[in-house]
Structure formats: structure tokens, C-alpha cells
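I'm stuck. Protein, please.
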Amino acid sequence: MRASRSVGATVLAALAMGMSLQACAHPTKPVRDMSSHKMTAAPMKPGGSGVAVEYRIDGTPEAGKPVLVVLSFDGITDPAGATVRFRGDGGLTVTGSPGPHTLPAGRASRLTVQVVPDADGIGYLHVFTAQNGANSATSITIQVGSGPAKLPASNGLKQTPDGEKLITMPVK
């Protein structure tokens, strides 16, 4: 009789443990979707700065409302570090300091930039990186709404803070 109670207690304990493990494996509350936190790798050109840029846009861009762009930088090999600066184009305004910001050597860095789109359409956050005397430019598309581009066209000759002249043209 005593042995059957021990077996019964063991079976009951095993069932209780199994149910608690099953409860852990299948939560009843919805799990937060982490796919929205994935970063997008920007293409790198040969002969550029060598700084790898990844980004994600937090939230849904709306005209006149700030949106955050989270950027990650890696591949900084220059012992003096690298620099990054930002510029908005096509009706996109960078709030806060556009840079230059220093990125430390040998480790990944993360910066968050706040931008404000002027209207529905497409705007660009230009990210300029430099290290070891080489420069790179990455353009991040910020889409506001689902319609075609309505942001004011950026036309004419522009000049970077370093004095480099750029001609910007709308692209469809």
C-alpha cells in the first residue's frame, strides 16, 4: 500500500512538473513581435570609409511629427576613431546636432537621430562617415504615407560642410 502511494505521488509530481513546463512553453499572453527591431544593413561601396552602417526607423513616419532613426556603426579600425554626420533632404529636417559625432575605434556604436518630415512622400536621411581619410555616404529613405513623392524637390547645387559640391535630383 505504501509503494502505491509513492508511485502515485511520483506520477502526480511528474504531471505537475510537465504542466508547469508546458505552461512555460506555450504562454497564454501574446508575445511581443521583435521583428520590428531588426536593423537594415546599408550597402557598402569599395574604397569607402569602411564603416558598416545599419539602421531602423522606429515608428511610422507622419508629416510634421518627429520620428526616430536608430543607427549602428561598426568596422571602425582607425585608432583615432571615425566620424559621422547627418543631413536631411527632400523635405526631411534633422533635429538636434547633425554632427560630426566621433565613433570610437574597435567597437560598435549606436546613435539615434530624430527627423521630421515636412509632408507626405519620400525624404532622405544622408549619413556621411569618414575614417582613415576615406569618406562614404549612405541615404536612408523615409517614406511618409503610401502615395507618390510630394515633398518639395531639392534642386540645384548643394555644398557639404567640407566644401564638396553635390547636384541633387529627384528619382522616381
Summary: Residues 2-25 form the longest helix (24 residues). The radius of gyration is 25 Å. DSSP finds one helix and eleven strands in the chain.
